[in-house]
User: Which sequence fits this backbone?
C-alpha cells in the first residue's frame, strides 16, 4: 500500500478503501531499476515477453484512468479536482516549482521551463482523470502483468501526463516502441492520443522529475543518493528542453566539446588535492552487507564529479555568460548577473526570444551534463541519449 493512502490497482481489481486492501506476495522477475547511474553501466533491454506485458499494461493503464474520481474523495490531496484547463495543466508543476524555489533549486533553465509551461497550456484539454503520475511501472511474469506499483505521485489531471512518462523515462529504462504503446492505449480507450499534448506533458513530467532530483542532493538526508540527483538533474533538464525544441521545430546543437586546454593535469590546489585524497581513501573502504560496493562507488563518484567541476567550472561560466551576452546585447561581469538577465528575458520572452532561449538553455544543460560525465557528448553513453521524437516533422 502506498504511503500516501491512495488505493492502488491490484491484479484482483480495485479495492474500496485502504483498510480493505489485502496484499498478495508476487513472484516476479526483476524489473529495470530505473536509476540513471545503473543504466549508464548496464543499459536496459527488453525481452519479447516483457514487451507483450508492456502492451498489456496499457490496457491496465486505461482502466486506471477510468476509475471514477469520487473514489478518491476521502483523500485530501485528491478531494478537489482541477477544473480549468490551466489548473489541469499546471497544478502539479506549479507546486513542484514552489518547492524548488523554497529550497533554492530553481536555476535559469528550470525557470525557463516553468515559464514555457505557463505560456503553452493546452486550453482544449478539459477532462480530468486519476493518473498514476509515473506510469509504466509494473511487475510481470512472462507476458502477464502481476501488479502495478509506484503511485507515490499519483494525481488528478490529464491522461496524457501518464503517456508522457513513457518517453520521459525511455531509454534509461527501456519502454520499447513508444508509438506502439500509444496505439494500444488508443485501442483500449477508443480515444485518439494527441501527440502535441503528450509533448507538452513530457516537458511537465520532466520538470517535476528534475526538481524532484534536486532533493536527492540534500546533504542532511540520510540515504539520499547525491550522485543520482546530479545525474538526473543534468540529463532530465536537458531532455525537457529537447521536448520543447521538438514542439517548436528547433534544431539543437549537440556537437559541443570540452576545452582541450583544460584537459591537462590541474595545479595541485587545496581543493583538488583534498578531493583526490578523498577519492583515494573512499576506494580503500571495506565493504559489507551494511555498506555494499555499489554504495562505495556512489560515494566515490561525488569527489570525482567535483574534480570535473573544478577543472571545467570557468569554461562553463564563460560560455554561459557569452551566450547571454550574444542574445541580450549586454556585457556581464559574472554568471550571477548573466543569470539574472536571462531570468528577466524569460519572463518577457516573445516568439523569437523563446527560440533562442531554447538553444541557450539546451547548451547550458548539455555543458552541465558534459562536466558531470567528464566527457564530450557520446551517443553510445546512455547519459547522453537524446529524447526520442514522436512528432512527424512535417506536422
Assistant:
Amino acid at each position: 500500500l502506498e504511503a500516501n493512502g491512495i488505493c492502488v490497482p491490484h491484479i484482483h481489481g480495485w479495492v474500496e478503501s485502504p483498510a480493505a486492501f489485502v496484499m498478495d506476495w508476487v513472484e516476479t522477475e526483476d524489473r529495470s531499476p530505473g536509476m540513471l547511474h545503473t543504466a549508464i553501466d548496464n543499459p536496459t533491454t527488453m525481452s519479447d515477453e516483457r514487451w507483450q506485458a508492456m502492451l498489456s499494461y496499457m490496457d491496465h493503464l486505461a482502466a486506471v484512468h477510468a476509475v471514477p474520481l469520487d473514489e478518491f474523495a476521502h483523500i485530501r490531496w485528491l478531494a478537489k479536482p482541477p477544473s480549468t484547463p490551466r489548473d489541469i495543466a499546471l497544478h502539479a508543476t506549479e507546486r513542484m516549482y514552489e518547492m524548488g524555489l523554497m529550497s533554492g533549486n530553481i536555476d535559469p533553465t528550470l525557470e525557463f521551463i516553468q515559464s514555457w509551461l505557463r505560456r503553452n497550456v493546452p486550453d482544449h484539454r478539459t477532462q480530468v482523470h486519476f493518473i498514476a503520475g509515473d506510469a509504466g511501472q509494473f511487475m510481470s511474469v512472462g507476458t502477464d502483468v502481476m501488479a502495478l506499483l509506484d503511485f507515490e505521485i499519483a494525481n488528478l489531471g490529464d491522461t496524457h501526463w501518464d503517456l508522457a512518462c513513457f518517453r520521459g523515462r525511455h531509454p534509461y529504462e527501456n519502454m520499447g516502441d513508444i508509438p506502439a504503446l500509444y496505439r494500444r492505449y488508443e485501442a483500449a480507450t477508443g480515444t485518439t492520443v494527441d501527440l502535441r499534448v503528450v509533448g507538452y506533458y513530457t516537458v511537465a513530467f520532466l520538470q517535476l522529475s528534475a526538481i524532484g532530483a534536486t532533493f536527492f542532493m540534500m546533504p542532511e538526508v540520510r540515504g539520499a543518493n547525491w550522485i543520482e540527483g546530479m545525474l538526473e538533474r543534468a540529463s532530465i533538464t536537458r531532455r525537457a528542453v529537447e521536448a520543447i525544441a521538438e514542439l517548436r521545430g528547433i534544431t539543437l546543437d549537440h556537437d559541443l566539446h570540452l576545452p582541450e586546454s583544460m584537459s591537462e593535469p590541474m595545479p595541485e590546489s587545496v581543493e583538488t588535492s583534498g578531493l583526490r585524497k578523498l577519492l583515494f581513501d573512499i576506494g580503500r573502504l571495506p565493504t559489507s552487507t551494511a555498506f555494499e560496493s555499489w554504495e562505495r562507488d556512489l560515494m566515490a563518484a561525488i569527489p570525482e564529479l567535483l574534480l570535473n567541476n573544478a577543472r571545467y567550472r570557468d569554461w562553463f561560466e564563460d560560455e554561459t555568460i557569452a551566450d547571454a551576452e550574444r542574445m541580450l546585447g549586454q556585457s556581464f561581469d559574472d554568471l550571477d548577473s548573466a543569470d539574472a538577465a536571462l531570468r528577466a528575458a524569460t519572463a518577457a520572452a516573445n516568439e523569437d526570444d523563446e527560440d533562442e532561449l531554447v538553444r541557450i538553455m539546451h547548451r547550458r544543460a548539455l555543458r552541465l551534463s558534459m562536466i558531470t560525465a567528464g566527457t564530450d557528448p557520446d551517443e553510445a553513453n546512455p547519459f547522453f541519449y537524446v529524447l526520442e521524437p514522436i512528432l512527424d516533422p512535417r506536422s
The first strand starts at residue 129 and ends at 131.
